[in-house]
Structures are given as C-alpha cells and as structure tokens.
Amino acid sequence: MGGEGFLFIPDYIGLFYGLIFELPEYIRNEPVEPEGFIGEFRKYGRYENTDLFIIVLLACVWTFVRHIFTKYIFKPLTNHLQLTPVNAAKFPESAWRFTFYTFSWSFTAYVIFFCGYEVFYKPNIIFKGWTVGSLVPSEIYWLYAVQGSFYLHSMFATIFLDVWRSDSLVLCIHHVLTLILITFSYTVRYHVLGSLVLLCHDFNDIFLELAKCCVYSKPRKNGSKVEIFETLGNISFGVFFVSWCVTRMYWYPFKVLLTIQPSVAKVYYSDHLPFGLEFNLMLWAIMLMDVYWFVFIVILLVKILTGTMKEMEDIREDNDGATAVEKPVTNGTSTEYSTNGIANGNGVKRRQVGGNGTTHSNHNHAE
After folding, report:
1. Is 348 helix (H, G, I), strand (E, B) or coil?
2. pTM above the 0.90 mark?
3. How far apart are the first and last CA of the chain?
4. Is residue 62 within 8 Å of residue 147, measured between CB atoms?
5. For residues 237 and 318, is the Cβ–Cβ distance under 8 A?
6. Is 182 exposed, middle or buried (0-12, 13-18, 19+ CB in 10 A)?
7. Segment 294-312, tens digit of pLDDT
8. CB-based burial, 204-239: b 16+ in 10 Å, e otherwise
9. If residue 360 lies in a helix (H) or strand (E), which one and from where to where?
10. Count of other CB atoms within 10 angstroms of residue 322
11. pLDDT per residue over 193-251, tens digit each?
C-alpha cells in the first residue's frame, strides 16, 4: 500500500502475509541498542512526571464522577422506572459506560476529523514528519489524558466495582494492553497512531451499553414489560454489530495494523522506528481480543435471527451457562422479585440489589 491511496477492498490475506513476512524486518535491519529495551526507551521516550500525575488524578476524578452519576442520576432513574432488582443493579454500570464512551468518542472524532489531521483518509502517512520527542499537540495531549485515565479507572472498576464476569480477565488484559499502548505511543510520539486506534474502538461501545440499558429497562417489578425498550434495544444492537464490523474488523486492521508494517510505515520515514515489533505485537493482541468478542456477538445474533432466543437478553451474559433466576414473590398487595446467587467459573460475587437485602451475582460480558 504505497503512496497515499485509500484501501477500499479488504485484503486480509495480504494483511496476514505482511504480519508473517514483513515484521521480521524490524529485527533484521534495525540497529541494536547497547542496553536493549531499556536503552531504546531511554533514547526515544519523552515524558514528564506531571503526565503521570494528571493520569492518576483524572482516574480518581472518573471514579468520583461515576459515584455521583450513579447516586444522583442512574439509581434514581432505576427507581423511577421501577426496574427489577437485578436489572436495577446492572443498569448504572452500563449507563455510566454509555455516558463516558459517548463523550470520549466524540472528543476523539473531533480531534481526528476537525483538527487538521488527514490520517483517517490517508493512514499510510501516519509516520510522515515523525521525530524523536516532537511536541504533542494540546488536543491530542488531553485526548490521551482522558483515555489513559479512564482505562486506569476501568482497571479499578472491573476488579473492585463491577460484578466479575466470565471474560473479566480478558477485559483486564485488554485494559493493561491499552494502557501500555497509550503510554508507549505517547512517550515515543506515536500519538497520531494511538488516536486512530482509539477512534476505531470506542464508537460501537456506545451502542453496546445503550442496548444493555434498553434490555434492563424492559421488565418492571410488577411483572409488566415495556415493549418499546425491546425495539430500541434491537436497533441499538444492530447499530452495535454493524459498527463493530466497520470499525474493528475493517478500519482497525487496514488503517492501523497495515500502516505499522515496515513496507507502509517507512514510505515517509525510512530510518529506525523504535519499538516497531513491540507495537505490532500489542496491536495484534488487541485484534485477537476483538475477534474473540466478535465470536460471541455473532453467536448471539444467530440466536436472535433463528429464534433460538425469543427476545434479546443481556448481551454480555449469554455465554457462560450459569443461571440467574428472578422469582416473583407476592405479598398480597404487590409483587417483588428475589434472585438466586449466580456462580461462575471464578467463584461467586454478590451485591445488594434492594433494600430488602436481596442479593444477586452476574457474570460474563462480550464487549
């Protein structure tokens, strides 16, 4: 993919060919640093201690903002909608992520499309003009600060705030890889590449979380169902699926993975690109996780289309085989719900879901 052309036709065979036969170029023809990885990082990495401080501070801010939103917006909304206890406990998690991803992707899109960058349309110029320690534009600096701090917050939230699910370990690995990529791409000034990676990964999460919120909003405590939320959930899931195919299965491999291969990356910069092999391996690891989650998405879609699943259920709790049971309990005047604990392969995690002490556990999510 030489020059400044745009790849319209997916060429996955060519992409894998480059992975196998081009990446060794970073090993064969690159200079060997006398102090290895650490020496290369010291030579090419540029960062300030204030950068780390801002990331940690913002991570604390996101945790606090989530608490405020949950206490004063999301939980009162679940009470107003009269959601069942299980769904009332899960709704705030998805509502928070929906809120953040809407903000973060909008910010990323603004930077990529409205701040003078051409890399989305000409991704092969991504290393044009690259220099060691170049100045990071303020809009990308704050984009990195927002995203890096959120993934640090998400690590904490996945382990301590959210209910453990069957793929939570994979999600933690994803967060670690993303943090490493954000850190490395900033320190060695691959920030334009990193911004393009973020653009490809946040948009579909908006509609994933929106679909989940709709799923949680359909059943009510009194046993009734608000059918409009099923329709909205199906529409959101459809947009989520299509956007996943476009952004993660097409944009990401052919606007990111292809452009960091030596034959493309060195069209505009022929000298040594630090951490070329390491970046490729981490970016491909994220691609493998995208495929891992995509399999669960396709399985769910097939179940819906074939009628195996009569209505869309929690799209992140569909692949484990554990059971959750909501049983209506009538006290003579109203109907309440009690729930059994849910066990997954990693143990049981419970939380309070109502004022009557009812507990529930949930598991699994295919992001």
Report:
1. strand
2. no
3. 31
4. no
5. no
6. buried
7. 998 888 888 878 877 666 6
8. bbbbbbbbbbbbbbbbbbeeeeeeebbebbbebbeb
9. strand 359-360
10. 16
11. 999 999 999 899 999 999 999 999 999 988 888 889 989 998 999 999 999 999 999 99
